């Protein structure tokens, strides 16, 4: 297909789609993470092994959520970045820390669940909170090292307010594609395989062992569902479409046109909206991985039932107050 027959890419789509998604994620994410992290921060000196990973997962979410208002302004202004080159790189760096930090801590939770259920006698007393703190620090270091090269690619163009690329300028897109493919393999594919392997083995063991606590089975299966949801909705589409979009930019730079360019671009923008949803969906991990929060929820539901049970209902099912004669 020659240059004259190239289909024009609809770059305006991101300006209409991303700001409402970012606003929604910002509001829901702050409320959900604040609610989920409150009990952990109140008892931070007595955190369990899993809760250390959950706390770090929440901190990664908060770090990214605080950058969303600036991105909302950017896309509402038709991709005009007014906050400077340095802050543009910091904003994109925070996104990468959140994305790959979340994947890393979810992997840590999966491995610990696997060891605690499949090999309980081998790990009993050998894995402590100190170990989980050290592992969490190592995850932050590894994710930072992986994300650091991204900051050396050009994110803005010119001294005037302009683009704040989530990847880089077209001049460097070939090198960035190679970096992105390696990053996808080490930061996403390997953790995905580890997570699926751990939970796959856990499910097999739970289904074969009749003596296992039913509540433990339900909690693990629900956590497995949440992890599969996060990877299927947030992580897999983003990584596939990000690299496809980079490849299309490489082909466009080489004056090669394909009919699928616009479709891939639009799908990539949708995947960018979906991947930021992980900051709003991660609190589901707190719900099914944190025993303290489960206890709080049960207590709240019990209090609500007791409160409503104090009001008798009339024939229409509407609660009515008791009179003095009825007491």
What do these coordinates show?
By secondary structure, the protein is mostly helical. The chain has helices spanning 13-42, 49-65, 68-76, 85-118, 120-123, 129-147, 173-208, 214-253, 261-276, 278-281, 283-289, 291-309. Residues 291-298 and 313-327 have low confidence and may be disordered.
Name some characteristics of this structure.
disordered C terminus, Rhopdopsin 7-helix transmembrane proteins
Q: What's the topology here?
A:
Blueprint: H1 13-42, H2 49-65, H3 68-76, H4 85-118, H5 120-123, H6 129-147, H7 173-208, H8 214-253, H9 261-276, H10 278-281, H11 283-289, H12 291-309
Helix pairs in contact: 1-2, 1-3, 1-9, 2-4, 2-6, 2-11, 4-6, 4-7, 7-8, 8-9, 8-11
**Element-level helix/strand string:** HHHHHHHHHHHH
Instruction: Fill in the CATH topology.
Output: Rhopdopsin 7-helix transmembrane proteins
How far apart are the termini? 85 Å
* The CATH homology group name: Rhodopsin 7-helix transmembrane proteins
Average the pLDDT over all residues and give the rounded result.
Answer: 82
- Largest sheet entry: none
Q: How many beta-strand elements?
A: 0
Specify the CATH architecture.
Up-down Bundle
């Amino acid at each position: 297909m020659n240059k004259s027959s190239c289909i024009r890419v609809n770059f305006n789509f991101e300006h209409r789609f991303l700001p409402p998604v970012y606003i929604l994620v910002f509001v829901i994410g702050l409320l959900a993470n604040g609610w989920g992290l409150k009990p952990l921060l109140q008892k931070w000196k007595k955190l369990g092994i899993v809760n250390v990973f959950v706390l770090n997962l929440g901190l990664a979410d908060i770090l990214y959520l605080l950058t969303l208002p600036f991105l909302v302004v950017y896309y509402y202004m038709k991709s005009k970045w007014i906050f400077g080159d340095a802050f543009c790189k910091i904003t994109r760096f925070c996104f990468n820390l959140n994305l790959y930090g979340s994947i890393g801590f979810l992997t840590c939770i999966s491995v610990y669940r696997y060891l605690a259920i499949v090999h309980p006698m081998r790990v009993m007393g050998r894995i402590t909170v100190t170990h989980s703190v050290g592992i969490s620090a190592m995850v932050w270091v590894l994710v930072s090292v992986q994300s650091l090269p991204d900051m050396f690619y050009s994110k803005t163009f010119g001294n005037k307010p302009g683009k704040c690329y989530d990847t880089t300028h077209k001049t460097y897109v070939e090198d960035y594609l190679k970096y992105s493919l390696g990053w996808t393999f080490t930061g996403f594919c390997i953790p995905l395989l580890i997570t699926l392997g751990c939970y796959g083995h856990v499910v097999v063991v739970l289904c074969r062992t009749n003596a296992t606590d039913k509540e433990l089975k339900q909690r693990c299966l629900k956590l497995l569902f949440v992890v599969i949801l996060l990877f299927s909705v947030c992580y897999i589409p983003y990584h596939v479409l990000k690299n496809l979009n980079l490849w299309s930019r490489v082909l466009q730079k080489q004056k090669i046109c394909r009919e699928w360019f616009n479709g891939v671009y639009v799908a990539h923008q949708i995947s960018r909206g979906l991947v930021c949803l992980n900051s709003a969906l991660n609190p589901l991990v707190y719900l099914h991985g944190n025993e303290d929060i489960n206890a709080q929820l049960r207590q709240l539901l019990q209090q609500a039932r007791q409160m409503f049970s104090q009001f008798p209902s009339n024939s229409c099912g509407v609660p009515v107050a008791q009179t003095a004669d009825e007491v």
